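Researcher: Please generate the 3D structure of the following complex. Treat every line as part of one assembly.
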Amino acid sequence: MTDEAVELEDLPGVGEATAEKLRDGGYTTLESIAVANKGDLMEKGDLGKKTATKIIQAARNSMDMGYETAKELMKKRENVGRISTGSKEFDDLLGGGVETQSITELYGQFASGKTQVSLQLAVNVQKKKKEGGLERNCLYIDNEKTFRPERIISIAEEQGLDPDEVLDNIHVAQAYSADHQMLLVEEAGELIKEKNIGLIVVDSLTGRFRSEYVGRGTLANRQQQLNRHMHKLQEWSALHNIAIVVTNQVMSNPGLMFGDPTRPIGGNIVGHQSTTRLYLRKSKQDKRIARLVDSPSQPEGEAVFRITSGGITDA
Ligand code: GTP
Ligand code: MG
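Model: Done. Output below.
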């Protein structure tokens, strides 16, 4: 991936005016120019054929468009950061906590702990590295109106952090539609850089899509939009070494006679785009069980944790 500091203006033959035109035409990133149709780029940027060709080539050259060696990948992996969930057992299940450069999906029934884990991570990302944080901040997209500052205060106090400071470092937006939700993510680039964001939470990822796209005819459309949405999240995570945490509800699957009669919403799209999938379920009292369903590097398994007044802890 290209250096985040590279702007359209850095391309040869692209001055401020051309960059402006290109942005207006929807070419906001180098990536979009690298894969652009020449004719369209000529039109949107008011460019001659030669210049357009040169610009596309330069954009391609400035990016890693194709292969990288395993060693280069290894190097990128060395930058992966981990955010503690608050529970040692839960962290161990994840190989040390929630990872940056990837999407972690929390799915489960109501009150299974999806929001509580998300809130805990929003606090913990701010902690010192040796204490399970990244010393970075959180962008929280709250689609369910369940973000509670009071809860953040309790969790922060339990961690010995200054609640005022912790609140200041969580940037919350409430999406009022699926389109708005997508826009909030697409437009997050500036905020991510400016506010040193290390974690993006989308709670819930699918709720708005589920309620807005009803009926069979719109299902393909919904999946396409969700795919785009998750792709953008993935892009941010790679570009800025960010952890992405999304929550997802389950729907009952009455056709299933054996096994768990629930499955996450969003089907294959969400499943494939999530790097790590965790299924949360209720246990006795304040205990919860996290089941690692899908992970590129960790074995399947379960962890028990608790939701207490001070946040997530070991059972
Ligand atoms: P939905 O969003 O409805 O799908 O559920 P969810 O999975 O997001 O559930 P959530 O994370 O909100 O968990 C709710 C549960 O957390 C409650 O039923 C409580 O058991 C627990 N909880 C929430 N706040 C507190 C608190 O302040 N103190 C304690 N001890 N438990 C809490
Ligand atoms: Mg919730």
